[in-house]
Amino acid sequence: MNKADIETLFARLQAANPHPRSELHYRNAFELLVAVVLSAQATDVSVNKATQGLFAAAPTPQGMVALGEDGVAEKIRTIGLYRTKARNVVGLSRILVEQHGGHVPASREALEALPGVGRKTANVVLNVAFGQPTLAVDTHIFRVANRLGLARGKTPLEVETKLLKVVPEPFRHDAHHWLILHGRYVCKARKPDCWRCALADLCPYKPKTPQPKA
């Protein structure tokens, strides 16, 4: 995909959704961090249902430590891997209290040192909470970037590295939201909705899926 096509692609995504947001519910950087950790192998909808009660009971790192692993596990038992996630949430909360004054750090190195936090989670927090132009490559972005020919790669890191090189600077802050939402609702894994895709003329994916018959 050439530079002009990439500019057009992101201009269309921006026009359709000028101010994209994460679909996870959160009120601050700490709640965002916890929600993203919990979202591994779980839907945003299921995480939002679980965190409603969790954040009411423990809205701070100190509160999460006081709630303890069993208490957190009870609040999030409706999502997958809830015991491991409870251990990670309490562990990262304890480190935030002991090493960061109860605040979420704005550095990749410090974030990735927290239990349950990998590169993708760190990228989401850096982008959404701190406004850094990072790209968190999940399964949706990985698929969309490869299908479009925007940034082809065999690993999420390879796709991320290429995206950071080709996404125009004015679009970089919101690019990961646009690509995730496009992959989640239009460029779906098994059967993309090519017939209603605003990027279809720019996309080399074949065969394009036709509009379903009424």
Write the layout of secondary structure elements.
Layout: H1 3-16, H2 29-38, H3 44-57, H4 61-75, H5 82-100, H6 108-112, H7 119-128, H8 139-148, H9 156-166, H10 175-185
Helix pairs in contact: 2-7, 3-4, 4-5, 8-9, 8-10
In brief, what are we looking at here?
With 214 residues, the chain is mainly alpha-helical.
Can you describe what's shown?
With 214 residues, the protein is mainly α. The protein folds into 2 domains: 3-19 and 136-202, Endonuclease Iii, domain 2 (Orthogonal Bundle), CATH 1.10.1670.10; 29-128, Endonuclease III, domain 1 (Orthogonal Bundle). Helices cover 56% and strands 0% of the residues. The protein is built from 10 helices and no strands. Helix 3 (44-57) packs across helix 4, helix 4 packs antiparallel against helix 5 (82-100) and helix 8 packs across helix 9. The longest helix is centred in the middle third of the chain and has 19 residues, at 82-100. The radius of gyration is 19 Å and the shape is globular. The mean pLDDT is 95.
Low-confidence parts, pLDDT < 50 over ≥5 residues? Answer: none
Cα gyration radius (Å): 19 Å
Measured as a percent range, the helix fraction is 55-70%
CATH class of the largest domain: Mainly Alpha
The CATH fourth-level homologous superfamily of the largest domain: Hypothetical protein, domain 2
Defining traits:
214 residues; mainly alpha; Endonuclease Iii, domain 2; Endonuclease III, domain 1; 2 domains; 10 helices
